[in-house]
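quick one before i forget lol
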Amino acid sequence: MSFREAAPLGDVPEGAALGIEVDGVDIALVRQGDDVYAIQDWCSHAEIPLSDGDVEGCTIECFLHGSRFDLRTGEALSLPATEPVPVYATKIEGETVWVDLPTESEN
């Protein structure tokens, strides 16, 4: 794993999601207070961008069928999704959000 520059902190909305691509990986960034979460931006049920859904607390909802995912663990919290989605560690340096992504050899 290695940290990659993801987005300016000011671009990540509070309590909502920002869909981005970092090194070919689709990610939804969500800001909750001082925390920024990074989760794969595709619902494991229907391959719909999670960044288009609603954020409530530490969960994000797929707008198409209503599956909810935990932003901290990627766990599917409601049907119809049953499979988790990957989450990625983040760090903030200055005004930049960095995301820890697998290296090519780890894929």
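fyi The chain has one domain: 12-90.
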